[in-house]
Amino acid sequence: MSRFQRRGFLSIAGLAGLGGVAQAMPMGAPHSGKENGRKMAGTSPGPSKAHAPPAQQNPHAAAIPDFVASLNRAEMHKVDGGWARELNHAQFHALKDLAVVNMGLEVGCMREMFWRQQAEWGYVVSGRCRIMSLDEQGRSSVDDVGAGDIWSVPAGTPHSIIGLAPTGAEILMFLDDADGSEFHTNSISAWVAATPPELLEKNFNTPQQVFVASKKEPRWISRLSNPGDLDTARKNARIRPGAEKIVYLFSRSNFYARSAGGYMQVVDPMSFPASRPFSAASDVIHVNGMREMHWHPHAAEFGIVLSGTAELTVMCTDGHQKTARLDKNDVWNIPRGQGHCVVNRGSQDLHILTVYKADRYAGYGLSDWLTHVPVEVTAETLGLPVDVIDHFPMARRGFMPR
Q1: Which domain holds residue 334?
Q2: Where would I find the beta strands (DSSP E) of 154-273?
Q3: 316/102 Cα distance (integer angstroms)
Q4: What is the number of domains present in the chain?
Q5: Dihedral, CA atoms, 329, 334, 337, 341, nearest 10 degrees?
Q6: Short-list 287, 302, 250, CA closest to 92
Q7: CB crowding 150-166: b at 16 or more within 10 Å, else e
Q8: pLDDT of residue 25
Q9: Residue, of 245 and 397, whose pLDDT is higher
Q10: Which of 31, 78, 109, 211 is the most exposed place for a label (fewest CB within 10 A)?
Q11: Where are the beta strands (DSSP E) in 165-287?
Q12: Amino acid 316: pLDDT
């Protein structure tokens, strides 16, 4: 059976009669940290200024489960041309496998040429950006990506990112180390600035006076006079064939599951080899829809709300449930194998992105398991009549209809 024919989403209309539901705990009004650097010009997608704490705090804030956090509360670092904030293990102790960076770049502004000690898996939240990299054989690549598309580069791979017209870009970058950070990378400008001119002369076969005259402070984000069109950029980068494709038009990929309740797209190293070591799913859950009760066998699930309002319920191994209400930029991290479900509690489509440090995407649906053992076993387990079990959805056919 095709891997694109799996059940994933349910309609929750009329489910109130199924019994008690764990109380949702609102995340409360978001706020971000202090500003660092100069005020940006305001063309970069995403937050444009730090938000003050609300006058009245959420009375349930102390009870928010420890598996949720929010990028809206992360410290905001801003300079002319862009901004960034992050969550890693230091800020969100539930993170064990990865860290996440949220960045905004204005039109023509560049995250400087750099490389990381971690693998980087990137997702475009909004806008457009250009990804430039160099592989181990010295072959360069230059590609443009838009909202919903991804890129992936191994640890140590030199690359850079430029925001493109008309709005720049807001992006997410996932690092394969929970202690990874946007602010501890290998910077070319910092290396050159710290290197004695005589060594630069030897390395680049260029008179050291040139470097002395042009010496400038390291740049994290800087402006280009004109990033140019893609064909010109590729020509100037001396592109030659053979480089591994590091970008993937995830927004145009086939549906993994689809029904009246929502739809899902999945990417992993099976469909996009450069995605290693990450797999991911983009879920759109329609109003009154539900991502079915399920779990993932290979890795913890990191999730983020890209738009809409979600209610996330997690089944703990001690038999209790934890439920949290989540809005845009709120995140969660659920340990491997932990049962959970997501409900759209808003008035518009809910869009979530879930990321796994795993070589393939996999999940088990509760209903799927219960309908693939002798019906008497399920009836005894749940204390339900056999004829009720017979109505459980069993075909791995995508999303359940409303």
Answers
A1: 9-14+17-22+254-389
A2: 159-163, 169-175, 186-187, 221-223, 247-248, 257-259, 262-267
A3: 29
A4: 2
A5: -50
A6: 302
A7: bbbbbeebbbbbbbbee
A8: 35
A9: 245
A10: 31
A11: 169-175, 186-187, 221-223, 247-248, 257-259, 262-267, 279-285
A12: 84
